[in-house]
Every structure is written in C-alpha cells, then in structure tokens.
Design a protein that fits this description.
heterodimer; A: ABC transporter involved in vitamin B12 uptake, BtuC; two-stranded antiparallel sheet; 14 helices; disordered N terminus; B: two-stranded antiparallel ribbon; disordered C terminus
Chain lengths: ~350, ~290
C-alpha cells in the first residue's frame, strides 16, 4: 500500500506475525532505495553545478536560480503539509521576513558577505519566533484554525509592510546593493544551488530523525500517536518552527537575485506558489517539492510567453488553479507519488514474487 | 458626537456585511465540518454580479436577487464538483476549497476584465438625512436594516421551521439525522447553496457602499469573516452576529483614531479569544484538537 498523506487513513493494523516480516523487508528496501536516491541526487547536483562551465545562457541561469530558490520554499512547506499534515495559508510571511531582513541589512549597512549571513540568520530567527507564536496559538486546535490564523497573520504582515513606509517604503519597495562576489550570475547560481542542496540534506535528515518519525506518525493518525504517549502539540510546533526558518532562507535568496524588495513577498501569491509546487510536485517526499518548483516555474514562463498569442494566458493562475484542484481530488500524491506508484506497480507486474509492494 | 455616531454607523454597516459572509461560513462548518476558504470568492462574484445586473436592468432589487442566484448556482456547482468528493478528509477539503477560491477570483478577471468596476448607488438610497445636526448616510442605514432583517429571518428559519430543525439537528449530530431517515446529503447541498447565496448577497450590498469592486476584495472580507467565526465560535449564528458587530465597530473606530492598527486590533481580539476560550464566545464545536 502506498501511503499518501492526503488520503484518509483507516487501514487496519497489520497482524503482528506478518508485521515483523514486512518491517524487515521495508528496512532492507529503504536501504536500497535510499542508496539509489543518494546516487541520483548526487549526479543531479554535479550536473547542475557543472552547468556554468558549459553554458552561459542568461535566461537559463535566471530560470534555474529561481527554481532553486522556490524549491527551498516549497520544501519548507512540504515539511508542514506533507510530513506533519498541517495546512498553512500564510507561508509567505516567513518568506517575507527573510526577504525584508536581507533587504534591510544590505541597504542600511555595508553590503558584505558577513552582513548577508547575519541578515539570513536574523530572518531565520524572526521567522522561527513568529511561527512559534502562531503555532502555540492554534496548533492545539483543529487543522482549520492553523490555516485561518496563518492566513490572517500573513494578511497582517502584508498590511504592516505597506503601512510602515519609513522602514519598507511600502509597495514601491527599495533597491539595495549586494555583496561584490555575488554580482556574477554564475556565482549566484552556484550559491543558490548549494543552498538548495544543503537545505535538502538537512531537511531529509530532519524528517528521518526520531523527531521526524513522530511527525509522520502525527500525520498518519493523531489520536494513535497521542495514545502512544507523545505530546503532539510540541512536535507540531517544532515542525512549524523549522519550516518557518527554512522558508525565510528562500526569501533572503529571492531578494538577493532581484536586488530589490517590496510587499509582494508577503502576498497571497507567494503562499500559493508554495502550495501549488508542493501539491503538484507531490507531498511528503521533499524531492516532490523540487520537481514541483521546476514544473511550475517552467510552465509559468511558458504561459507568460503564450500571453502574446491569446490574452487568456495572462490569467495563468486559472490553469494552475484547475490543475491544482484536479491533483488534490484525483492524484493526491502529486507527480512524485503518482510516478512512484506507477513504477512500483509496473515492477510488480514484471516480477510477481518481488516484495516491492511496500514503497517507503 | 457627529463623527462618533457616524463611525458607529460605519462600523455596524461593515459588521453586517461581514455577518452575511460569516453566517454562511459558520453554518456550513457547523453542519458539514467544511471550512469554505472559497467563501470570499462567492462574495466577490456577488459584488460583480450585482454591479453588472444593476447596469443591465437599472433595478437594484433585481441586481440583489440576481447576485443571490449567481451565488447559489456557484455554490451548487462547487458543492457537487469539488467538495462532495472529499467529505470527511479535512486536509483535502481545506486545500480544495482554496483551489476553488483561486479559480473563482481569477475567473472574475476573465469575465469582467482585471480592472476594478465602478459601482453606483441607486438614486433612492443615495444622499443622507440630517437628523438634528447629525448627518446619516442613507445607504449605510439601509445595510444595517437589511442585515438586521437577515439575522431575524435566519433565526426564525432555524428556530421555527422544520428545515431549521433539521439543520440544527445536523449541526449537533449529522450521523444521527441521517439515521433518522433524512437525506443529509441533500441538506448539505441546500445549506451550502444558502450560505453561498448569503455571501453573494453581502457582496452585492457591499458594492455601492465601497463604490468600487475588485477581485481581491473577496479575500479581504474573507479574512474578516474568519476572524469573526473564530471569535464567535464555529457553528453559532448568534456568536457570528455578535462578533461581526464587534469586529466591524472596532475596525471602524480604530480606522479613525489609529488607522494603522485597525486590522491588528481585530487580530489581537482573535488572539485573545484563542488564548482564553479557544471554542469562541458561543462555540460548541471547534475547540479541542
């Protein structure tokens, strides 16, 4: 049975004798698939890192840099939605905090690398504090409350950024200088790629840690986890704090590539980006979020180019919105999950005796 | 004195509009455990529909009625196509209603152009009365009157009629109502359409009040409505009514005295309620994990 976090969870407990053998097979399989995973990820990383040596296409760099940054954002969202089963409609607030933190530090002080690092850390701390606050307020209630509260808080931050003009210059925004070494497109590209890789590895470690297993247990069945003796609220808060801090990193990188920040970083569209990428790419896998970021960014560019052909393509959100509804209703595990289950069912048909039915 | 009274009228009028949105939201949640994140989209469709029909027919009553019909039709389609397949799964529901919101508000831009539309106030409701030195704007009083009528009508409908009895029983325990031989799915659909109609009605009423309609206004009002249902308690009409007036008044007063903090004041109110009484002022449902 392929477990997808969006499907109702009502599978009966497996009988104990079978359970042990399944667990044994599962861990063996996890070892094998984890090795394949590592090889694929490493290969991809090397290929992408070698890109500046073979190509200097400006538009390709810009597109890929954007994909890397949004992939970090989408992965942080996946930690909430895919691994813990929490729905947030205000993820943009953490992104925006990182963005403004970096923008303000680099415009008010000297634009150097240590200052950039300091601004990223400050953004992460702010985002972590805010997500702690929101989590404490609403995570002990039904899932609707977190969604509503994050939506309202993101709305509040958007208004605050518009009104506090002495600090943010409102929706006009402000430009700032970036550290000298990052002015080269290829360097910035590599920095974003390395950040993506680092965040990916860190979040993968996090989700596979004992804490991460408890989070997934909460996603699968909150009552059962609680009755096993875990206090679920602190675990959920931990997930939301880590997700907030990770989202803030992507916000910092985002404005670094633009050398400009305005209130759009707090907008609903930013949250929708994370939602669409995570849902369409596939929840609960991390790499699904990366796939989603690539697909959405690429499709976005394609549809924007098509806007010259027919004005309906200017309203590209409609296509994503419809696609999103279809994915939630019909393919709740997204591109990554659906492909994985196709692959495993194909493999099963070829080797009926192979115990491949248990995909991690 | 004059300005204070005007602020109170403004606050009550906004509160009534938010109530129209929150009433549907809270009923739908109480009955079906669905929190409809697309409610603001229905509100915006009501506003655009009302403006369009008013321009077409020249009759404000026809515009309001038409907006309600548009809202109910959209609600029917939504309930059938996107919400019915995911009953019982909260995460999927929350996600799918947000998707519907996205499509509804983008569709507005396709149908009515992305630019804001100007909304006219009908002649018999424009202008103001001068009551002993206090100037009262007619249209705002009209909204308050209509809102109060809707509240009374809704309460009577729920308390005194058979369908109201079924709905109240459904809020208490939908499975038991089903077991008693009532087609609860049909009740769900009807209540959803009713809530959608109320939201669209609120949108159509808002349009002449704000003078202009734009697609993002759905989300702005939806956020207020969410704050209201949290404060008032999910599933409670009385709670929503009280909280709407509270939110409307505090918004209007803050907007006058400390304009930068008007949304923050309402958020603070919500945070306070969440800390002290997570199930809301009147809520029976929604508290606890």
């Amino acid at each position: 049975m392929s477990r997808t976090p969006l499907q109702p969870r009502s599978e009966p407990a497996a009988p104990p004798k079978r359970a042990r053998s399944v667990m044994g097979r599962l861990s063996a399989l996890q070892g094998r698939s984890s090795r394949t995973h590592n090889v694929v990820v490493l290969l991809l990383f090397v290929l992408l890192a070698a890109l500046p040596a073979v190509s200097d296409s400006r538009s390709l760099f810009i597109l890929l840099t954007q994909v890397f940054i949004l992939a970090v954002f989408a992965m942080s969202y996946d930690l909430l939605l895919g691994f813990t089963g929490i729905v947030s409609f205000g993820h943009a607030m953490f992104f925006g905090l990182g963005a403004y933190s970096t923008g303000l530090f680099l415009s008010r002080f000297e634009a150097t690398l240590p200052m950039l690092l300091l601004s990223v850390i400050a953004g992460m701390a702010l985002a972590a504090a805010l997500s702690y606050l929101v989590g404490v307020l609403s995570l002990r209630l039904k899932s609707h409350f977190y969604a509503m509260l994050t939506l309202a808080f993101a709305g509040l931050l958007l208004v605050a950024a518009e009104k506090w003009r002495s600090l943010t210059k409102g929706s006009d925004g402000f430009t700032f200088a970036i550290p000298e070494p990052l002015k080269d497109r290829a360097t910035l590209y590599l920095v974003c790629l390395c950040t993506l890789a680092a965040v990916y590895v860190a979040l993968r470690r996090f989700t596979r840690s004992p804490l991460g297993s408890v989070l997934q247990a909460i996603r699968e069945n909150e009552q059962r986890t609680e009755s096993l003796g875990y206090r679920i609220v602190p675990y959920k808060i931990a997930a939301s704090v880590v997700a907030g801090a990770a989202a803030s990193i992507s916000g910092s990188l985002y404005v670094l590539t633009l050398r400009f920040v305005n209130t759009t970083v707090f907008s609903m569209d930013m949250t929708l980006n994370a939602l669409l990428m995570t849902i369409i790419g596939g929840v609960g896998t991390l790499y699904g979020a990366v796939i989603g970021a690539a697909v959405i960014e690429w499709a976005h560019q394609l549809l924007t180019d098509l806007a010259g052909v027919h004005p309906i393509f200017e309203r590209w959100i409609i296509f994503f919105g419809l696609l999103y509804i279809v994915v939630v209703l019909v393919f709740p595990s997204g591109i990554a999950g659906t492909c994985a289950s196709w692959l495993s069912s194909m493999r099963r048909r070829r080797q009926p005796e192979d115990p491949e039915e248990e995909r991690p | 004195m004059n300005s204070l009274l005007n602020l109170i009228v403004n606050g009550l009028a906004t509160g009534m509009l938010v109530f129209l949105l929150a009433a549907g939201l809270t009923l739908i949640f109480g009955l079906m455990s669905v929190l409809n994140f697309a409610h603001g989209g229905l509100f915006a469709w009501g506003a655009y529909g009302g403006v369009w029909l008013y321009g077409l027919t020249g009759s404000f009553a026809a515009a309001l009625a038409g907006a309600v019909v548009i809202g109910m039709l959209l609600g029917w389609v939504m309930e059938r196509v996107v919400i019915r397949p995911v009953y019982g799964n909260h995460v999927q529901q929350i996600l799918v209603t947000l998707g519907a919101m996205l499509v509804l508000s983008e569709l507005l831009k396709v149908v009515f152009t992305p630019n804001p539309l100007k909304a006219e106030t009908p002649a018999w409701l424009s202008g103001s009365w001068d009551a002993g030195g206090v100037i009262l704007i007619k249209y705002r009083l009209f909204i308050i009157l209509v809102g109060a009528l809707v509240y009374i009508g809704l309460t009577l409908l729920l308390r005194r009629t058979r369908i109201g009895l079924i709905v109240r029983a459904g809020v208490a325990n939908p499975d038991m109502v089903q077991a008693l031989g009532i087609n609860i799915r049909l009740v769900f659909t009807l209540v959803f359409m009713f809530g959608a109609g109320l939201a669209a009605f609120g949108g159509a009423l808002l349009a002449p009040y704000s003078g202009v309609v734009f697609s993002e206004m759905g989300m702005q009002f939806a956020i207020l409505a969410f704050i209201v249902v949290v404060i008032g308690g999910m599933g409670s009409i009385q709670g929503s009514a009280l909280a709407s007036l509270l939110v409307g008044l505090s918004g209007a007063l803050m907007a006058y005295y400390v304009p930068d903090l008007s949304l923050a004041a309402n958020m603070l109110l919500m945070v306070l309620v969440l800390l002290v009484r997570p199930s809301g002022l009147f809520g029976a449902k929604g508290g606890g994990a």
